[in-house]
Design brief:
The chain has one domain: 3-Layer(aba) Sandwich (Glutaredoxin). 30% of the residues lie in helices and 22% in strands. It is built from five helices and seven strands.
Length: 171
């Protein structure tokens, strides 16, 4: 399904988070914006379900929510949003950064979502990304959440993290 490009963003605590940090864990990623009144809160509720399903002692999985509205969603705004959804700051990061880089990541994840054009489309998926930055799956959160399937695939990925070879690829 592709691989996410390198990036460096600010997180909701005011720190820096880069794609290099993704190489240590499996990640569940979504693209949100805090002024959204419908889909984004539902997506964040599903992310909370994922957070709650994880063993506290297991640090092999992290959660990332990346804003698509960086002009509005400052680290302070994202911190309030994170608190609203009881995000564990050690496991779940809310990121903001350069809009062009965010749009590039969205294209790589096949996430078409722009708050200025939200009437046309609004992505409602959680993305499973392995420790090498490869996208392993996309899971709807609406109308029928596929969170149980995401959790099953996450468990399988933890047991077998090897990246499948693409057609014609030789190891």
């Amino acid at each position: 399904m592709g691989q996410l490009s390198n990036f460096t963003f600010s997180d909701h605590s005011g720190g820096v988070f880069s794609s290099i940090e993704m190489r240590r864990r499996i990640w569940v990623v979504d693209f949100i914006y805090t002024t959204c009144q419908a889909a984004c809160p539902r997506m964040s509720a599903e992310m909370y379900k994922v957070q709650q399903s994880l063993d506290e002692r297991d640090d092999s999985v992290g959660l990332l929510s990346i804003t698509v509205d960086p002009e509005h969603d400052t680290p302070q705004v994202l911190a309030a949003f994170a608190a609203r959804f009881k995000a564990d700051p050690l496991r779940w990061k809310f990121l903001t950064g350069d809009k062009a880089v965010i749009r590039k990541l969205q294209k790589e994840a096949s996430v078409d979502m722009d708050p200025e054009q939200i009437e046309q489309s609004h992505n409602k998926c959680l993305i499973l990304v392995d420790a090498d930055g490869f996208i392993r799956g996309s899971y709807k959160t609406d109308p029928a959440p596929e969170t149980d399937q995401l959790l099953a695939d996450l468990a399988m990925l933890k047991r077998n993290p090897a990246r499948p070879m693409a057609a014609g690829e030789v190891n």
